[in-house]
Structures
1.
Amino acid sequence: MLRFEDLMAARILDRQVPDKRAPILDAVGRLRSSHSPKSLLASLVEGEVLTMDQARWVHAQVERYKRSRSVAVYGHLLAREGLPADRVRRLVEQVGPDADLNGLGDAVVAAGQLTPQREQQLRFQARLAADRDQASQVQTWLAAHPATGSEEQTQVDLVAPPVGALAGALGPPDPGGSGALRLPPDPGASAVLRLGEVAAALAGPAQEEARRIVRGTLSDADDELPGPQFRIPEWIDMSDPRTGKQLAGYRILGRVGAGAMGTVYLVDRQDDPTRPVALKLLPSDASSDAKGRFKREILANSFFSHPGVIEILDAGTTEQGHAFMAMEFFDGSDLAVVLDAEKRLPPRRALLLARQVLEALAACHAAGVVHRDIKPGNILVSRDGETAKLMDFGIALVRELGEFEGAVFRSMEGGVTGTPEFMSPEQAGGDTLGEASDLYSLGCVLYLMLSGRLPFESESSQGFISCHLLEDPLPLARAHADAKALPRELLDVVDALLRKAPDERPKGAAAVVEVIDQVLPRLRDKTGRVGLWGMLWGR
């Protein structure tokens, strides 16, 4: 999946390291035909084309350019409201180095220049216009560069040249083609706009570009849309065609993500406008299995509630026949994305996240619900890396249903259900499952967080199933060079979680939490770059 950020990063790199054009274009080609959320920079770091510091610097330039365009559009909308340009510049100086779209908008309200409602509306329109313009640039570029696999079809001009504020910030091409990306003194330079850049975005060529963007992206209907009463995270895709439309009493503000099980949107609701909500929408032609998972998730969540589990607020069917589920909105990404970028986590952070999932599992098990699909993709992690929430009870086993279970969810009968890499032996063998099965799967996740690898390695789903049934996992102490230095109690409990026999595993999630609480005071993680995965994955 090729995004605007990828095209901008490619253009910067083409200017800075033209001798690396071949691997860069190869990575661009792979992205355009892939559904992976991985960014161009993540691919280039993984392929050792760029160092992490180089990727961070390029990312900072892209973010500054994007913010410059948003501020330029916002400045144009303010000018249409009658705010003098010099007044806006003074507000920029007042805000200081944090003068991005949100900081400037707050300053406009604080200075009494606009009512909060009108300012929220203009800020919403500015984001909508900027995101639609970015999506349009991507589509224009894709149409102009067919996927032929030929480098001649994918040349230097990856996106339109930057406007006003950042026209010179990307630097000239590397004349020697040395491949040594020129970094500023601080390779991790902030993506916050400098005051001079913001000022430039509010005048001259940048404003001409802003007028063009507004004319090309906002309709009369968009002008009437009220702004939400909360900030829309920057990673939300507001260019989605459904943005601004009403659905089942909710107003769509942008897309959170999409997958085989439907699309998730950020929405608000008139009767509770201050609360962001995630709306999961299932296609009307969804398979019977998808519909069964949808029903099961709603039902399982009705049996218990816990702060560590994504809360379901509402569910139903739209007039167009789409099943929907309204959930608590969580500003973060799943653990699979985090681990793909960071490979493994510092022990203290890994245990803090695992502890929260275990507490959620304890509540789940007490209500007679077995999750059956504990894996990194079903654990959400906040952007600061400190909070974890369990989600997706689409294949959960609900004891209260008894024989009714099979009658309601016939689409899930037959064969093994779950994710092979994290499946307990009894689940892999099709046997009766209890809470010990979830603990085994959580043990696989904890093993992966601490070592950077799975307890077993295989090239196929059937191979993983066989490993869980027949092979002993490599002890955690031998899985990574640093793992043997972990406290013995932690090594022992992870190994115990991965025992073949359910009755040989810890007696409940609370027992594992007790061990973690004993170990945590002895762990001191080095200060790291928490949230780096967000930069590399565009979140």
2.
Amino acid sequence: MPRRDPQSYTDDTQPLTRSFDWHARVDFDSRVLSCTVTLTFTEPARGGPLDLDTRGLGIDRVEDATGQALAHTLHAPDPILGQRLAITVPAGATGVRIVYRTSPEASALQWLAPEQTLGKEQPYLFSQCQAIHARSVVPCQDTPWVRQTYTATLDVPATLRGVMAAASLGREERGTGDGARALERFAMPQPIPPYLFALAVGDVVSRDLSERCRVWAEPAQIEAAAWEFAVVEEHLRVAEQLFGPYDWERCDLLVMPPSFPYGGMENPRLTFLTPSLLAGDRSLVNVLAHELAHSWTGNLVTSTNAEHFWLNEGFTVFAERRIVEALEGEELGALHAALGYERLQQAFAQHAEHPELTHLRTHLAGIDPDLAFSAVPYEKGYLFLKSLEAAVGKKRFDALLAAWLGTHRFGAATTDDFVALVESHEPGLLDRVGASAWLDGPGLPKDHYEPQSKRLAAVRELASHGAVPATELASAWSPAEWQLYLEAMPKPQPHEVCRALDTTYGLTSSKNLEILVSWLVLACESGYAPVLPRVEEVLGSIGRMKYLKPLYRSLLRREETRALARDLFARHRGAYHPIAQQVVGGMMG
């Protein structure tokens, strides 16, 4: 069977989906979506099989556009791919309609009880479909290279709001009293890969930040969110100057519940953001720059499948740092790049037994992309692009980037597509930078770009000796310098060093979670027990995997805290998103 994507049952020879219409009734009591989806093909079917991706769906009925039942088989589940829904499609069919139910354990959905929300009064539902979890919400061709438009209707309790990463077409309330419902209608006119399908239902309100930007959050958090992200329009204008017009019309933000597993998810028109970014000083808005950059690199031009994920994330880190440089100067951009370099070294160490996962172009047949996820496509991809830029200069590389975005706009691409474009625009460039070692070799090539700055060098020098910074020096540090210092410190450190850092600078009580987690990891790996109550507090209050993984890993590394790690995971597992449950659970051994 010809398949471009080892993580999907999608068959190139079968009808392809152009668009779909989705209706879903949200039932918080059963934690189930009762749905109907109508898939429309790019052209009438020739007749024969149609294979769709599903995971944990209960299929009630499959029919054609006239209501005629179609023969179908829901195959046995594969642990990675889910279940293949095989439908026999008659010749001339323009689409299929499927009536189905999601599972209460749907891997893309997290259902929160009221006590798991900030307001403590209403339940909350949200989705996270990347990498291959859309199939647990919609039977579909769940692969990035089949881009689709859609319309949708969410049937929700009238006391709640439904939002989607799509254009809102209005809200209609029906009934009164406890059983009142509301229909929220949406349309996504631009074709998207299925992993960008996104929804949330909860007690959320909004504040306008500009004519095209709005932030949504729970009522108790909306003012803090509006202040923290008031810079979104400025970021967006800078990005447009760098990368061309913003093609998604609106750029709204949704501050998620604490269990959201990522820093942000670049769902077009409605970016999902972790509440851990609300530091109160806008020191973590570079994550916002990253998600905005995805509007061009990842959303506008998408990797064909997870084996070319660096095309999404390496380009986006590059674009994010260009935005940060334009807003805050090259020195701060270099500091963020240095932090990324440190994380890349950590990722290489974690993949020491699987060096093939440190290639940019990976081979993931039989591998769950969530378990292969690391900093490698982000930071190694960024360094590769910086090497190309250094070799030809910024002006010529910007022309190359513009050609890439223009050639594959609203499309999907592979590493080979990028290689071909570079070779056609800059013949010989790839050989000059040793592209084959970057793309298909482990680790980093011997001669690679490495971020440099005077501030960076000073922080690294201090950290390399395990020295505690003088107060007059540290008082002038940016959050990025603090984070870099803590992550660059050799581990373990003597208890007296940890005690001096904590008592002098109050690191255990830091409200900046990037600084806090970097400090807690250093302290845990040093066996500095006074931080353990704060570690327990963080692991019990936040579900972002960027924090969960290093904290649990640091506890598991020391015999005296190994049992604590397992106990904390058992205690808080139910509050984590299903993706985080799987990833962190795999660390427990």
